[in-house]
Amino acid sequence: MSTAGDVDEKLAAVLREHGLFEWLDLSIEVAEPGRTVFTLPFDEKFANLVSGTVHGGITATVIDTASGFALRSTFDDPTQAALTTTDLNVRYVRPATSEIRVEAEVVRAGTSMGVTECEVTSVHEGERKVVATGGTTYRLFRDREFGDETSAEGRGTSEATTPDGGETA
């Protein structure tokens, strides 16, 4: 596992270079082993049409992203971690009308599965309050790095070989 300083710097660089995260204007406030805190400034482009509150899909996206980064921090090289969301849940508590802050903590990061819990807060009626809670389950690929296409699983196919080396369907 990486040290807190290594995690912070490496993950902040990944965030700055990713198109979606740049478009969202996400910021990492904390990145340490097993925990991340992200902030997303309020922007009209993320608001619901009638209410003007932050759209729930945006909140879910930031929960998923913060969770993935928290789990990445449990890998030897967080920037090359291979993982994918298998479950995402969000419980909306009250509307978010300003910047949101998402704190993700790793509950468990095993060999192949990782679980997180998240809390989303925003200023509501002049006070920072919980606006949503949630969590994720991820499939972790600790045996390979991102972009490693050397296995059938890595290619996203279900190809397998028979004992004599032939391929099965």
Q: What distinguishing features does this structure have?
A:
169 residues; alpha+beta; Thiol Ester Dehydrase, Chain A; 6-stranded antiparallel β-sheet; two-stranded antiparallel ribbon
Plain-language structure description:
With 169 residues, the chain is α+β, with helices and mostly antiparallel strands. It has one domain (4-146): Thiol Ester Dehydrase, Chain A. 22% of the residues lie in helices and 41% in strands. The chain has helices spanning 4-17, 19-24, 56-72, and strands at 27-32, 35-40, 81-92, 100-109, 113-124, 127-145, 160-161, 167-168. The strands form two sheets. It has a six-stranded antiparallel beta sheet. The protein has a two-stranded antiparallel sheet with strand order 7-8.
CATH topology: Thiol Ester Dehydrase, Chain A
Share of residues in helices: 10-25%
For the record, what CATH class applies? Answer: Alpha Beta
CATH superfamily: Hotdog Thioesterase
Number of domains: 1
Q: Quick check: average pLDDT?
A: 83
Parts with pLDDT < 50 across at least 5 consecutive residues:
150-169
Radius of gyration: 18 Å
- State the end-to-end CA separation: 38 Å
- Estimate the global geometry from the Cα principal axes: globular
Number of helices: 3
Number of separate strands? 8
The CATH architecture would be Roll
Q: Order of strands across the biggest sheet?
A: 1-2-4-5-6-3
Strand content: 35-45%
N-to-C series of helices and strands: HHEEHEEEEEE
Largest sheet: 6 strands, antiparallel
